Amino acid sequence: MTVTVYHNPSCGTSRSVLELVRNAGIEPEVVLYLKTPLNRKQLDNIVHHGKLPARDLLRTKEKLCAELGLDKPEVTDSQILDAIAQHPVLLNRPVVVTPKGAKACRPADLVLELLP
């Protein structure tokens, strides 16, 4: 099973998710998204694969979210994904992608729904 974790090593939840995946006997592909940002097409693929609204990938606690007005309900999925592509710090970490789907795994145990 291919598992990709979009990871921020300074985030406790992200580290916990990585540990849960490894404890399931899976060595995931780890993408340090702050060093290797996702482009718009990759973000579109995650949203479609996970059948989720773009807002699920948005880190609303990030100060930049409010500064850019992304916390307003009228902001479109397209605008959110454009902003995340431009400012990777806005990605709600960690995001996990498996053949079962994709999601931002907050809290960490949400990752178990994506594992065998």
TrEMBL record:
Cleavable signal peptide: none
Molecular function GO labels: arsenate reductase (glutaredoxin) activity
Catalysis: reaction(s): [glutaredoxin]-dithiol + arsenate + glutathione + H(+) = glutathionyl-S-S-[glutaredoxin] + arsenite + H2O
Gene3D superfamilies referenced in this protein's UniProt entry, alphabetically: Glutaredoxin
Enzyme Commission (EC) number: 1.20.4.1
Keywords, comma-separated and alphabetical: Arsenical resistance, Oxidoreductase
Gene Ontology biological process: response to arsenic-containing substance
Family membership noted in the UniProt record: Belongs to the ArsC family.
The name this protein goes by in its record: Arsenate reductase
